[in-house]
UniProtKB/TrEMBL annotation:
It comes from Nocardia alba. This is Uncharacterized protein.
């Protein structure tokens, strides 16, 4: 098995830098937006992800095509 796992995803959204990093040493998730960073426990990060997904699902279910 692995002693240490680190996963990093980064990119740009609307011209702004966005990154999500996981580190098994500390079992934390760092979320970075431009120069702002927050460190969350894995459980808090999962809860945040679920809340964002639910909000986006709710928002998109109310969208209608207007001609």
């Amino acid at each position: 098995m692995f002693d240490h796992i680190s996963v990093r995803m980064s990119g740009r959204s609307a011209g702004r830098y966005v990154a999500v990093n996981y580190d098994s040493t500390w079992n934390t998730v760092d979320v970075t937006f431009d120069t702002h960073q927050v460190t969350l426990s894995v459980l808090d990060a999962a809860a945040l992800s679920d809340a964002i997904t639910t909000a986006l699902d709710t928002y998109s279910s109310n969208l209608r095509v207007v001609r």
